[in-house]
Amino acid sequence: MLPAGIRDWSLLAVAGHPSPMTYARHFLVMEHEAGFYHCVSRCVRRAFLCGCDPLSGRDFSHRRHWIERRIHLLSSAFSISIYAYAVMSNHVHLAVHSDPRRPWQWSDRETARRWLMVFPGRSSTRSAALDQAQRISLLVHNQERMEEIRRRLGSLSWFMRALNEAIARQANKEDGCTGRFWEGRFKCQALLDESAIIACMTYIDLNPLRAGASRHASRAPFTSSRWRQRALASGKSPARPLEPVAGSCGGSRLEVTEGSYLTLLEWSARKLHPEKPAPAPILRIQPGRSLQEHQGNWLCLVSSIEQHFFRAIGSASALLEFAARAGQRWVKGSRLSKYPDASALILG
User: How many domains does the chain have?
Assistant: First the structure.
């Protein structure tokens, strides 16, 4: 909320308060509420530290495997579910569901086990199994420490810290240097409704096409869409609700089906990148109303979601509610909030 006596954000600097650009993260990510978020981490100076550097000629593409494996590992420990991700040559996109309340439903031993998966500490001279059992026992008997661990396992900030710090240390060790690998803190946008979630997932999965790194939206390497395509190829039903590719859904299952989402992704890819081979499905969002009627708003949304929105993405009413909660009068992106209801997407 605005400080007492201040009626507008523009008066903050005059009153000696920090600029609204230094927006406290707790206004965006609620400490005790579950929510969906779009997170982005970029390499320092946007260097090709996870791809082939055209200047030096060095190839760091193997680091993208590190990041993808780390994402899946962390999602099995934290109460964070991954709905979409794209590991690019110099940045990483994630669409996640965070539930800070779930760690309090785990037993003490389960919570300790998950924590030690990510932060095992120094190895012991004894056997690894015995060492693990001792560490779990020590944690379980320290209730103050267990409360802190539960808060951290439900924290989006700690999840991103565990992801970025580990990759930075591994890359610096490989390069024999020290210093920053990522540009400051990760960028975060709240996804306020299901349409915003689906649009953000589409935007993330289309990243390789925009960068020219792939010619197929659902088969691009180091993306969540590739995992979804493999799941369908292995025999899973395309009619099942859209679930996370890593981590448990935790009651956050979306209404859109797996098959509908992948079809929507390919349709969006074909419209935005007509030179890329893709099927031309027929979709409708409501009986008698086709997606083509709303394709202008939809395609504008999924092609530049970071440019048109800042702290939150959602419908006009959701953005107004978010602004009121944060003590603001306006939120960037309101003019693009009239996009089709993705929660009603079905195959035509």
Answer: 1
Choose among 228, 249, 296: nearest CA to 82: 249
Say yes or no to pLDDT of 280 above 80: no
The closest of 160, 179, 162 to 45, measured between CA atoms, is 179
Residues forming a β-bridge with 308:
none
Residues 6+ apart with CB under 8 A from 285: 291, 294, 340, 341, 342, 344, 345, 346
**pTM higher than 0.90, yes or no?**
no
DSSP 124: P
Phi-psi label, residue 232: left if phi above 0, alpha if psi -120 to 50, beta otherwise: alpha
Q: Which of 85-89, 218-222, 230-234, 248-252 has the highest mean pLDDT?
A: 85-89
Return the H-helix or E-strand segment holding 71: helix 62-75
Give the contacts of 34 (CB within 8 A, at least 6 positions apart): 97, 98, 99, 100, 101, 250, 252
Q: Which domain holds residue 222?
A: 33-100+154-347
Pairing of strands 35-42, 187-191: antiparallel
Strands 80-87 and 289-290: unpaired
6 in a structural domain: no
Residue 108 has pLDDT above 70, yes or no: yes
